[in-house]
Every structure is written in structure tokens, then in C-alpha cells.
Amino acid sequence: MTEAITLDELQEKLAFCNKMYDAIRLVDPVLKKVIEYRSQCVGETETLCYNYWENGRICDNCISVRAYLENKSFMKLEQSPKVIMHVTALPIQTAGRPVVLELLKNATDCMLIGSGEYEKDRTMRSIVHDLNDMVVKDHLTELYNRRFLDDRLPVDVIDATLTRKPLSVIFIDVNNMKAINDKFGHVAGDMVLKHAARIICSWIRADMDWVARYGGDEFFVCLRNTDNET
Q1: What is the spatial distance between Cα 77 and Cα 130, in angstroms, rounded to a whole number?
Q2: Of 11, 44, 59, 206, which residue is most buried, by most CB within 10 angstroms?
Q3: What is the pLDDT of residues 39-74, one digit of tens each?
Q4: Nearest to 67 by CA among 95, 89, 48
């Protein structure tokens, strides 16, 4: 993976990338804001980075926050209602704030077979969705996985701090899983975990909260805008 570049190298990179990509932008992956580069410094805008995809929510498979946290580049496919984009996220070394360079290339035409009308191509939509889910979802319970938790929780904590809204987390441990596996087998144990996941999901607000499988029989629940009296 590519190492982070510095602000001094950024101007040359931007000039080159403008010729190669359909869109380029700088983002703060923690605040989820698009930022501007002027006179060798960066400044925040009010534009939310995920608004580009027109779905009204933070990307589950956010490679920009991962690029920042791990200090290396990542790539993925992401989709808006009309196009599939190949996205590359490159961390930028700065002294004051997290900055990631996103390079976006329209990949719709090279991926479609047939009419090329992506808006009507449900199969391709499903493929892109499934590819991103493979990165951030637990295959057994279909909850988010530990990678998603590690990427998303810092963002929600900072957002709660800046907006002065409460944030609550819950750890849930399913008791006696070893005994269940030993007595009834791992297939039965898997059924218990999937049932537990469904119950937990029924308790939360799907548009605001999220649940991740933390470990074998452990679950992590993040409740946004929620305190112990809510």
C-alpha cells in the first residue's frame, strides 16, 4: 500500500490526478467534511463527504477513515443512484488535522454488460453492495464486524463530543455458549448467536444505532443521541 504523502507534495499530486480521475477531493475522515486546499494549507467546508453518494448516510465501508487510522491507501467500489465509482483513499500527512485525498474514477461503463443503464441494473447494484458488505459485515450474524466497529466508533464519539449529544454503548455477552456448543454442537451454537443478533437488532433504531459482533459470543451496541435515561 502507498504511504502517506505530505502537504508539500500535494500540489503536484493534485495537478497529476486531475488528468487521471473524474473527481478528486480532500476530506476530513473523522468529521466527514470535504476540505479545501489553498496556499499550501487546508480549510474546512460545510459539505459532508458522504453526500456525494446521495444516500443520506455515512458509508459503511469508509476507506478514508481506514486510510487515516492505518496510514496507508485503500480502494473500493462505491455507488450513487446513477454511477459506480472506483475510489482510492490516500492519507495526507499534516500537523493539525486528519486529511485524506480521495480519487474517484467512473467505473460504470467498464463493469456493465448489456444496455449500460446502471439505474436499471439491479444485479450490478447488488454486486457493489455485497462487495462492501463483505468488508464490514460478520458472515454468520450479518451484523457489522470488528473492523467496522474500530473504524466507526471513533467517528461517532467525536461527533457526539462536537454536537454535545449523548452517546451510549452496550456490551452484551451471551452466557453458556461453550456449554451449548459442547452439548448440542456448533451448528446449534451458531443458531443461538444468529437469534441473539436478531433480538438485539429489534431493540435498536435502524436509522440511528448500530450493532457489531465484537467477538465469538460478544456483541457491541452503539446508541447515538442516547443517555441512561432515554
Answers
A1: 10
A2: 59
A3: 566 677 889 999 999 988 899 999 999 999 898 999
A4: 89
CATH of the domain at 141: 3.30.70.270
DSSP alpha helices (H): ranges in the chain?
A: 7-20, 63-70, 108-111, 122-136, 146-163, 177-184, 186-203
The Cα 95–Cα 202 span in angstroms is 43
Type of residue at 51: N
Q: Are residues 72 and 141 in the same domain?
A: no
pTM for this prediction: 0.75
Helix, coil or strand: residue 221: strand
Of the residues 76, 111, 146, the one at which a domain ends: 111
Paired sense of beta strands 74-79 and 23-28, if any: unpaired
In angstroms, rounded to a whole number, what is the distance separating the alpha carbons of residues 98 and 164?
A: 21
